[in-house]
Each structure stands twice: as structure tokens, then as C-alpha cells.
Amino acid sequence: MLQTRPRSNWKKNMRNEGKTCLSRGNSDGKKPKREKNCILRLRNPAKPIIMNNKKETAAFWERRRGTMSAQDIFETISSQYFQLTNSEKKVADYVLAHRMDAQYMSISELAEECAVADATISRFCRRLGLGGYNTFKLELAKASMAAHSARRAGMEEGGRDGFEAMCRERMQESTAALEQTVKRLDPEALKRAADLLLQAGRVLCMGQGSSMVLAEEAWTLLSSISPKFALVPDSHQQMAALALMEEGDAALYFSYSGSTREIQDALEVAHARKGKVILITRFPKSPGGLKADVVLQCGSNEGPLQAGSVPARVAQLFVLDLLYTELFQRAPEQAVECRERIAEAIARRHV
Q1: Domain for residue 177, yes or no?
Q2: Which residues span the domain enclosing 215?
Q3: Residue 69, C-beta contacts closer than 8 angstroms, at least 6 positions apart
Q4: Number of Cβ within a 10 Å radius of residue 146
Q5: pLDDT, greater one: 316 or 143
Q6: CB of 124 within 8 A of CB of 81?
């Protein structure tokens, strides 16, 4: 007679971690009941943590968040340092040594600096109990913001000296943004961008959020030397305009991160119509930067809590000004004629 193994009460080697598990089998031998949200497996624990219901799961994560808020990210890294792998320790060493720099880097840039793979950065973030790299950058920004707030409080107590110190700090940030842009911007890329704009029959100026303001600035400035420039503010209108591009038309797109869904959609539609995309961004190795026809890299470091910061805008406006100057020098007669006609028309509006 065949001998059969008794049914196990628990399913081994569960793959759908954090989603489902099998509850204890019934004594009558019926198929175990499937429950949801009853297992949570942290990275590299000895055993999974079993949750019997959603309430316990929610309570666990609430305690988890409380632990992270009680200590900043740097303390968390230090406390878990000896539990990290050798590759993850490289990341920890770099972050602890460059506390102000890491929050401004893309995952590819940080991986390159640490001489590890992008996947190692992702594992490092999850090892700290974080959802991913964006959450990690947010925690870095919070820790840096706390230190910055302490310095700001000292400035406010200093009266006039504090005000002057604040002015110097802000001025230095904008100056640093301009200097970084000069170092990062490729002169040949600027020339290629000018070539595409001059050859294009129509140029669409685009962006999202605070970058849309920069796109409007670009349209205002560039339309003063050529009528081919158009502003497309709405995201749906942008897709429609890109879908109607003719071969050789161009889009001038502003995106500091270069990693939004909108820029990726815009690139796909524009290239399908054989149009060109010029991207002004801080990160040339971003998804948008890798697919754009020309990338104009700006300087300025902007953390997750500083979206739309003035130094970042200053850097991008500086790139725009350089592009405008290049176009003006390529076709000075047309540019001067357009500006003269505009000046005459606007002069009538002054009292």
C-alpha cells in the first residue's frame, strides 16, 4: 500500500511575499483557507513575520514608521551598518561621508560614485526599511532640512547679521548653480540644439509643473526672434501637438529630473512622428536624457523637498539665455527685425 506524506500545515517557500499566505489546515483535511495580508518578510530576517489580519499589518507598519521618525536616516544607516553586505557598505560609506550630496543624485549617479550596480542601491534602501530610492532621498532631505532649520534659527536670532548671512547664503546658491551649469553644459550640444531649432518648421515649448513656467519663459524669449515657437501648456494638448508634428519639427522640453512619465510619453510620440526633442535637465542619464535627441545639462542641486527652487530655475534660465544668444548670433538680421517690429507694436501700449 502506498504511503503518502501528511499534508503540511504551512506552505513552504512562499513567493508572494507581503501578499498572501496559507492558514493552518483544518482537522478534517480540507484545503487550507487563503488569507490576505498575513505575512510580511523583511529583507534578510531569520524568519518571516506572520500577520493574522490587516489590523496587525497596519499596526506593524505604524511602529516601523515611528522608528524611522525617531531617528534620522544617518543614525539608521550607522545602527545597521554591520548587517550590510560589502557592496551595501560602500553605499553607506559614501552617504555618510557625503551627507549633503547624495540627496541630489540620481540612482545611476550614486551607483557610479560607489562603484556598485543600480540594483545594489535599491537593495540598500530596502535594507533600511524604505520602499525605494525615492523614499531614501526624501529621508536624506528631511535630515538635511532639520540641520538647515537649526542654522536658520540662529540667523533669525542674529538680527541684521542674520539677515545678511541669509542673503549671502541665497546668493551663493544661485552663483553656485550658474558655475555648475558652465562646467556641465556641453558647448557642442548647445550648437546641435541651435541647429535643430533653426532647421525646424515649428518648435513646441513644453514642461510640467514648475518646469512649465520655464517653458513659458522660453516661448516668451524665443518668439521675440522667430514666430515658429509655440507654447503648449496642457499635458493633453501637448500630446495632441506632438502627434501633429511634421518631420523635422522640434520640441524644447524642460524637466529637471528628466524622469517623469510625461517626458517619456512626449519622446515616444515625437519620435514616432520623426520629430526632434531637446531636453533641458540636470540628469543626462535619466530615462528622458537617454532618449532625447539633444540634452542641455544645467547645474544646481535640488533635493526632494526643494522642487521648483530658485537656484534650479536660475540654472535652467541661464541655459535658455545661452541658447537664445546662440540663435541670435546665427541669424542676427532676422532676430533684429523681429525685435524691432515687436518694440514698435508694444510702444503703442505705453501711456
Answers
A1: no
A2: 182-347
A3: none
A4: 10
A5: 316
A6: no
Residues 6+ apart with CB under 8 A from 180: 298, 299, 300, 301, 315
- pLDDT band of residue 347 (cuts 50, 70, 90) is confident
Mark whether 54 and 84 lie in a shared domain: no
Q: What is the rounded distance in angstroms from the CA atom of residue 215 to the CA atom of residue 320?
A: 10
Model confidence over 201-211: pLDDT tens digits?
A: 999 999 998 89
| Amino acid identity for residue 45 in this structure | P
Q: Is residue 57 part of a domain?
A: yes
Domain assignment present for residue 7? The answer is no
- Per-residue pLDDT, 103: 80
CA dist 250 and 205 (Å) reads: 9
**Position 2 in a domain:** no
Q: SS3 string of the chain? A: CCCCCCCCCCCCCCCCCCCEEECCCCCCCCCCCEEECCEECCCCCCCCEECCCHHHHHHHHHHHHHHHHHCCHHHHHHHCHHHCCHHHHHHHHHHHHCCCCHHHCCHHHHHHHHCCCHHHHHHHHHHCCCCCHHHHHHHHHHHHHHHHHHHHHHHHHCCHHHHHHHHHHHHHHHHHHHHHHHHHCCHHHHHHHHHHHHHCCCEEEEECCHHHHHHHHHHHHHCCCCCCEEECCCHHHHHHHHHCCCCCCEEEEECCCCCCHHHHHHHHHHHHCCCEEEEEECCCCCHHHHHCCEEEECCCCCCHHHCCCHHHHHHHHHHHHHHHHHHHHHCHHHHHHHHHHHHHHHHCCCC
Q: Which residues pair with 36 in a beta bridge?
A: 20
| Counted domains in the chain | 3
We report the CATH number of the domain holding residue 130 as 1.10.10.10
Residue 67, pLDDT above cutoff 90: no
Torsion angle of C-alpha atoms 206, 207, 210, 215, degrees rounded to 10: -20
Choosing from 36, 68, 100, the residue where a domain stops is 68
Region 41-55 average pLDDT = 47
Asked if pLDDT for residue 315 goes beyond 60, the answer is yes
* C-alpha span between 42 and 49 (Å, rounded): 8
Please give the model's pTM, rounded to 2 decimal places: 0.64
- Do 302 and 202 belong together in one domain? yes
